[in-house]
């Protein structure tokens, strides 16, 4: 099982985790970080850095909500400083569900993240178009 | 083979489409429901929203009996069977010639005239009768919302009332 950190604006990460668990049940490998209004970028960086350092980075996947957002920026800086975790942006529920249901000890971090990127994209559907193509 | 036969008032939804389908590695879903079988719109919506890589069949309870029997001995089809009510489950069990050995009870929503057995199972007196009949037929009852939840039996729930 990979270590997972959800890092988002506000409390989104915590709600992503709650909603995920509503669908697949309890998880024990997911930590959440929320960049809330009251946090300075310095304290956010410290908190997130602490979460990252407490796990094995070679087995760590961080999912952030927005490329260019503060959580993603903090993580990107850490990567530029030489950290080795895997970082994705554009977190959505299909991505997260795919991650939890596809993860096992035999799949590599890269194979897994390639897979969940596909899931994240194919989870965006123009339903009207799907209906009109059907009929 | 039959991977799961489940009573779920919502039939196919997130917990089933993602949680159970992946847990059971199901490639086939049979919705045994008379209304859905007759309702073209409902059937089309179910088909459009089915999980990727899964074959979906929507049949009446009566039609489903022999289909379940066939699926039970099929090798390639990993099948998830969904019914909406306990009554339908009992009927399907009777019509499928003893091939259903286990019944998972997921969401049974509370409504007037029902009592809550726990946070996700609410039953009428008739439901309890039907569940006891299912139990007495040797079908193992498994009250569980999600694959990772603890399995509860009929006695576990009735004891709490």
Automatic annotation (TrEMBL), chain A:
<dbReference type="GO" id="GO:0016020">
    <property type="term" value="C:membrane"/>
</dbReference>
<keyword id="KW-0762">Sugar transport</keyword>
<dbReference type="InterPro" id="IPR033887">
    <property type="entry name" value="PTS_IIA_man"/>
</dbReference>
<dbReference type="GO" id="GO:0016301">
    <property type="term" value="F:kinase activity"/>
</dbReference>
<keyword id="KW-0813">Transport</keyword>
<keyword id="KW-0598">Phosphotransferase system</keyword>
<protein>
    <submittedName>
        <fullName>Protein-N(Pi)-phosphohistidine--sugar phosphotransferase</fullName>
        <ecNumber>2.7.1.191</ecNumber>
    </submittedName>
</protein>
<dbReference type="InterPro" id="IPR051471">
    <property type="entry name" value="Bacterial_PTS_sugar_comp"/>
</dbReference>
<feature type="domain" description="PTS EIIA type-4">
    <location>
        <begin position="1"/>
        <end position="124"/>
    </location>
</feature>
<keyword id="KW-0418">Kinase</keyword>
<keyword id="KW-0808">Transferase</keyword>
<dbReference type="GO" id="GO:0005737">
    <property type="term" value="C:cytoplasm"/>
</dbReference>
<keyword id="KW-0963">Cytoplasm</keyword>
<dbReference type="InterPro" id="IPR036662">
    <property type="entry name" value="PTS_EIIA_man-typ_sf"/>
</dbReference>
<dbReference type="InterPro" id="IPR004701">
    <property type="entry name" value="PTS_EIIA_man-typ"/>
</dbReference>
<dbReference type="Pfam" id="PF03610">
    <property type="entry name" value="EIIA-man"/>
</dbReference>
<dbReference type="GO" id="GO:0009401">
    <property type="term" value="P:phosphoenolpyruvate-dependent sugar phosphotransferase system"/>
</dbReference>
UniProtKB/TrEMBL annotation, chain B:
<dbReference type="InterPro" id="IPR036667">
    <property type="entry name" value="PTS_IIB_sorbose-sp_sf"/>
</dbReference>
<keyword id="KW-0762">Sugar transport</keyword>
<keyword id="KW-0963">Cytoplasm</keyword>
<keyword id="KW-0418">Kinase</keyword>
<keyword id="KW-0813">Transport</keyword>
<keyword id="KW-0808">Transferase</keyword>
<dbReference type="InterPro" id="IPR004720">
    <property type="entry name" value="PTS_IIB_sorbose-sp"/>
</dbReference>
<dbReference type="GO" id="GO:0016301">
    <property type="term" value="F:kinase activity"/>
</dbReference>
<keyword id="KW-0598">Phosphotransferase system</keyword>
<dbReference type="GO" id="GO:0009401">
    <property type="term" value="P:phosphoenolpyruvate-dependent sugar phosphotransferase system"/>
</dbReference>
<protein>
    <submittedName>
        <fullName>Protein-N(Pi)-phosphohistidine--sugar phosphotransferase</fullName>
        <ecNumber>2.7.1.191</ecNumber>
    </submittedName>
</protein>
<dbReference type="Pfam" id="PF03830">
    <property type="entry name" value="PTSIIB_sorb"/>
</dbReference>
<dbReference type="GO" id="GO:0005737">
    <property type="term" value="C:cytoplasm"/>
</dbReference>
<dbReference type="GO" id="GO:0008982">
    <property type="term" value="F:protein-N(PI)-phosphohistidine-sugar phosphotransferase activity"/>
</dbReference>
<feature type="domain" description="PTS EIIB type-4">
    <location>
        <begin position="1"/>
        <end position="161"/>
    </location>
</feature>
């Amino acid at each position: 099982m990979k270590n997972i950190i959800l890092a988002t604006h506000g409390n989104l990460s915590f709600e992503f985790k709650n909603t995920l668990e509503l669908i697949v049940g309890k998880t024990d490998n997911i930590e959440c970080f929320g960049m809330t209004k009251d946090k300075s970028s310095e304290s956010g960086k410290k908190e997130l850095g602490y979460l990252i350092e407490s796990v094995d980075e070679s087995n760590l996947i961080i999912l952030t909500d927005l490329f260019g957002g503060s959580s993603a920026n903090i993580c990107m800086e850490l990567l530029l400083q030489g950290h080795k975790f895997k970082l994705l942006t554009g977190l959505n529920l299909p991505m997260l569900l795919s991650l939890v249901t596809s993860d096992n000890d035999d799949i590599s971090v890269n194979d897994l993240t390639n897979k969940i990127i596909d899931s994240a994209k194919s989870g965006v559907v123009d339903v009207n178009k799907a209906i009109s193509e059907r009929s | 083979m039959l991977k799961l036969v489940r009573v779920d008032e919502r039939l196919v939804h997130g917990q089933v489409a993602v949680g159970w389908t992946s847990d059971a590695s199901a490639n086939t879903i049979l919705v045994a429901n008379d209304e859905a079988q007759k309702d073209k719109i409902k059937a089309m919506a179910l088909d459009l929203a089915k999980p990727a890589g899964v074959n979906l069949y929507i049949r009446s309870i009566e039609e489903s009996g022999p289909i379940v029997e066939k699926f039970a001995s099929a090798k390639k089809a990993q099948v998830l069977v969904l019914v909406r009510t306990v009554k339908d489950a009992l009927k399907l069990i009777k019509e499928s010639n003893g091939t259903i050995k286990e019944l998972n009870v997921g969401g049974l929503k509370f409504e007037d005239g029902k009592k809550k057995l726990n946070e996700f199972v609410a039953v009428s007196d008739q439901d309890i009768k039907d569940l006891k009949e299912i139990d007495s037929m040797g079908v193992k009852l498994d009250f569980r919302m999600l694959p990772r939840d603890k399995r509860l039996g009929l006695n576990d729930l009735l004891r709490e009332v």
